[in-house]
Amino acid sequence: MKPSLAKGTRDFTAKEVSRRKYIINTLQKNFELFGFQPLETPSFENLSTLTGKYGEEGDRLIFKILNSGDYASKTIEEDWASKNSQKLISQISEKALRYDLTVPFARFVAMNHGQLAFPYKRYQIQPVWRADRPQKGRFREFYQCDADVVGSTSLWQEVELLQLYFKSFQDLKLSVSIHINNRKILSGLADYAGIADKLIDFTVALDKLDKIGKDGVTKEMLEKGISEEAIGKLDFLFNQTNNALENLLNLKEKFSGNAIGMKGVEELEFVISNALSLGINSQNLIFDITLARGLDYYTGAIFEVKADEVAMGSIGGGGRYDNLTEVFGVKDIPGIGISFGLDRIYLVMEELNIFPEDSENNVKYLFANYGETESIEALKLIAELRQRNVAAELYPEASKLKKQFTYAEKKGIANLVFLGNDEIRNQSVTVKNLTSGEQKTLSISEFIGLH
Known about the structure:
It is a single chain. By secondary structure, this protein is an alpha+beta fold. The protein folds into two domains: 339 residues, Bira Bifunctional Protein, Domain 2 (BirA Bifunctional Protein, domain 2, 2-Layer Sandwich), CATH 3.30.930; 88 residues, Rossmann fold (3-Layer(aba) Sandwich). It is 42% helix and 18% strand. The strands form three sheets. The protein has an eight-stranded mixed beta sheet. The protein has a five-stranded mixed beta sheet with strand order 13-12-14-15-16. A hairpin with a 5-residue loop joins strand 15 and strand 16. Helix 8 packs antiparallel against helix 13 and helix 12 runs antiparallel to helix 13. The longest helix is centred in the first third of the chain and has 20 residues. It is globular and about 90 Å long.
């Protein structure tokens, strides 16, 4: 049988693994600099833990794991005969692969909140699985890189997470803009226009502004039963200036007497003004009044990160939520979290060709194999290099030199080292740089001294 990959999964070559590790290590270093602690949760959870947390569509995309043993014998005969999959699932599957990192995190906090020091800051970098239809940029197995703070309502957390975002992307040499809004402002806008009952329809349409334009948004709102009068009151949304604080000031006038809208403006004003005073560039922090991600989930600030030089959709996002653990019976644990899109960040960096050369951990020296006597001497020298954390290897067979050259080139090894009879007698090595073609002979002590 011809081997194949499962749909929606990928193999990663040495180069890809090294580059992905470079991004992950950069993020991990910054998470820890900002006081976040690592957490890892199991690849699979009880199915009951995951079900009902992502809506009907999400539930369908959860990969269920069949119970071990003769699972079919434990089913109710009528359900098996009628092929009623909804009833059968609970009889044949008790476990499932995790769909995201947020629900397992909520389960962990609910189970351990008595032992945790609040505010609890955790980061998590692990794969997740979704039974989604694979397409470009969308996979069934992919990594999420999340950082969350739970147990604090302080708006300084929003400010710090903005700093974490900008510091991490700066370290990756990636220029980004962060779009920011507040869920309370969206609620305030719906109240202002007299369409509070159409809040979700309004925000779903508004969120598409950059894709379908003002006319498209207006058309969709009319189709959802939002009146022309209400749309007219909201016309100012399409004419925002580039000055975030100025736009917030204009909103204040419109939100006079509108408690929830005013609260959203005040919260955002605090976050933006303090972020700017801490040195974040106003060009890169954009108050985006049309941003409405994850409406049912977020309750305060919402973020979306976009690469400045490549059209790629969002490469990060997040926001504040009121009660992460309520679904597990533990109330009053507010939180805020952000996520980095590893796969999209990789694609942007690849397109811009900004991965540093040393992000790939290639072998530095390949020692040519001349036979048993020379190999022993070569391996002694290789052991010395490895003690100094220099990657080196011996070609395993005493093959023709051409074959050994080809191996080194295919593997991306920078230098070929010759240690034949003459070199052994003279206590030297000959090193050929395979990029420049330059070749030189050094004493063994000189060669080792280079490292």
